[in-house]
Amino acid sequence: MGGSTARFDEFDTVDWITDAARERERQHERRYEVGRTLLLRRAYDAVESWVVVLIVGVLIGVNTAMISIVTEWLSDAKLGVCSQGWWLNEKFCCWMHDESAPACPAWVTWDHYLGVDAAFVRWAAFVAMGTAFATTCALLVRELAPLAAGSGLPEIKAILGGFVIRGFMGAWTLVMKSVGLALAVASGLSIGKEGPAVHMGCCVGNVVSRNFARYRRSAARQREIVSASAAAGVAVAFGAPIGGVLFSMEDLSSRFPRKTMWRSFFCALIATVSLQAMDPFWTGKLVMFQASYDRDWHFFELLFFAIIGVFGGVYGGL
Q1: CB-based contact 287:238 (threshold 8 Å)
Q2: How far is CA 243 from CA 26, 84, 178, 220, 277, in A?
């Protein structure tokens, strides 16, 4: 029990009063700047936050796309290998194959690769590789990055509330979380990428913002970037930028001013656009399973939507 809680034994918290006093002192010192220096400083301060969330959004989208590509390749590797290139998954290997044909000649199952034709070999390869992926993921997390364990959502809520967990949103945790997530999902375990996507998004936001002095000095401003990063993480997980902002505002952040809401939406939007541009599934969709509708809604249905909304709001308030 002691080993599992050792990473939380520091119990350091953010002194928001001292942090706010330092920020006021910094603003007070800038009051004496005049002329062109003052104008440049104000322009830089106004643009810097948007540049940071732009960079964070792009990196979150790219990281999520890379994880999706690697996960799909590892999942197909349990079934066979492409004779035209081992780095190709089954979809890319059989891209030009006619679907009406019985089988894709370029994709070789493991029994045929070994020169036999036995279902037991295919089953054994599937089980063995899935077990190897899950075991490797567990060893990486246990030995190299214990902070990468779990979804990370409870810890993110604690950090946004002022609790300090050193290394939880660091670069090494981000790398191990990304590698471990791809291995865990590809192994066939009954887990998803939604919770870890929020943790990885916050890691990206923390790593990027640490390169800007404005966010290194102020824990409150750092919290704004983490909130925006969490929204972007949910956005790329579900393909829903607005849903990501609502999740960050309602479930994670203890303080969510209006400017943070707009920056969170911008960060989530950039992350989903970056993911869409990479198109990891080659389907034009942001996520593997995406709802589509072949019928338009009718005007009279708005009444029932409103009734459901009213009951939902009343039930939530009670």
Answers
A1: yes
A2: 35, 41, 23, 23, 20
The predicted-structure confidence for 147-179, as pLDDT tens digits, reads as follows 888 888 888 988 888 888 888 888 999 999 999
Q: At what angle do helices 219-238 and 16-29 cross, to 10 degrees?
A: 110
Residues 84-117 have pLDDT tens digits of 888 888 888 887 766 666 778 888 888 888 888 8
3-state secondary structure 56-69: HHHHHHHHHHHHHH
Span between the terminal Cα atoms of the chain, in Å: 38
Q: How many angstroms separate the CA atoms of 178 and 165, rounded?
A: 19
User: Which tokens is 193 given?
Assistant: 């990428």
3-state secondary structure of 109: strand
Which of 250-256's residues contact partners 24+ apart within 8 Å by CB, and which partners? 251/157, 252/153, 252/156, 252/157, 252/160, 252/198, 252/227, 253/160, 253/223, 253/227, 254/160, 254/161, 254/162, 255/223, 256/227
What number of other Cβ atoms are within 10 A of residue 230's Cβ? Answer: 32
Q: Across the strands, what pairs with 164?
A: 12
Q: At what angle do helices 153-160 and 194-209 cross, to 10 degrees?
A: 40
Q: What is the pTM of this model?
A: 0.82
Q: Which of 134, 146, 152, 234 is nearest to 188 (CA)?
A: 134
Cα angle, residue 91 at apex, residues 89 and 96 outer, rounded to 5°: 125
Burial (CB count <10 Å: 0-12, 13-18, 19+), residue 48:
middle
Count other Cβ atoms within 10 Å, centred on residue 308: 10
Strands 80-82 and 12-13, bridge-based pairing: unpaired
Query: What number of other Cβ atoms are within 10 A of residue 117's Cβ?
Result: 10
